[in-house]
Amino acid sequence: MKISADAYPTTVEMPRTLSAIHNLRNQHNRIISGGTILQINWEAGVEKPEHLISTEKLSELKGISEVQLDGEPALKIGAAMTISDCLHNISIQKNASILAEACEKIAAPAVRNRGTIGGNICSKIGDTIPALLVLEAQLSFYNGEQENMISLREWLTKPNPPSSELLTNIYIPIHTLNKPGSSFFRKIGRRESFTAAIISIAGYIEYEENNIKTARLAIGGGSHLPCRLSIAEKEINKAANGIDWSFLSQVIQDDFSSYTDPFITVEYRKKVAANLFIAWIKDILKEQGKE
Amino acid sequence: MDANKLIEKTTSFKVNGKQIELTLPPTYRLVDILRDSLSLTGTKVACEVGRCGACSVIMNGKLVNSCLIMAYQMEDAEIFTIESLSEERLHPIQEAFLQAGALQCGYCTPGMIIALKSLLDEEEQPSKEDVLTALSGNLCRCTGYEGILRAVDLLTKKRHETIGEGKE
Q: Is A109's CB within 8 Å of B37's CB?
């Protein structure tokens, strides 16, 4: 069967090193890793780009290791590592278990074997993002000359990522065992597996002498732009002498911007998020003998 | 865009043990290569967005959706399709499917079987949870999945007996 090349005009480059990338500043390019999200978009009618820069063979984007970042231990995760790689990595399971949990809830094995953590982040709607937000992840981007660091939280507030910047690595500070804390990740959807998220939420709480010292809450999933719930966090952090649960529930619901779609109302999403966060915090306080 | 840019490339890969070389546009999909260029129509095409698993194949030892693999990603890859399972006689997974009545229309069956093969290549005695996870990317709109799970039970019991009798 003769394939019409005219129907497939996109060109691809597969550099082996960052310095070998030719078209990073070409405005008609698109960076592609596993390509699972991009291909879904193309199938839905989004126009294919003229040129693709594949990260698949970039050695700088591979590997998961424990490193020092600003003198502190951190996990370094190459952006081209697949969701499966992250899910099964011992170091991630040990030091960032909620990231492994988030990976486990993404799509199904065949997609996890292709989709990458870098692609999940750069989609800006990936389910790893809430977990990475509460883990205070830092991102490293290559701009054609050098790599620059930016916190995930700050990067998410910027307009759509320019295709002239390439995500190379994700860094997660390792919270050592002398900091007692709890973390959680929950994805809520309308089916049991291969779940499209209604919301995905993550939390991290550090305590000191059984009192909450630091709380970090993040929400994303579905079409939400993931974010930290900073007002709700402040409310929890200042409530050393007990939390007003109904007030906190309202603060959480007011603190994130959600949407209604044909399946789920905005009110439902907000209520579910608030209930899940509060149930988790109450469980922690119970464990600490504070409830 | 440079008009002289080459938009077709000779891609070399293996399918079911056979070395293949084709000149392809880089974004041409594996599912189309298998079905249209190589006439391997056992791999089915359905949702085209990696949601249903009908086009599952094993590439470099891992389960993938062939609708989400492009020609440029297949360079030097080794691919196994449903056709590789029963060149002389039915594969035990296929036998178990027949015995347990694990199919009705049969459209999802090649993908289901490939996904199970991928699991059973890694796990000799998978738990029910392992099986449910392994099949979570494969949709079946006929069987209600019960027949498929019965087939897996049948298969793992047989394997267990074989191991018990020291036949493996």
A: no
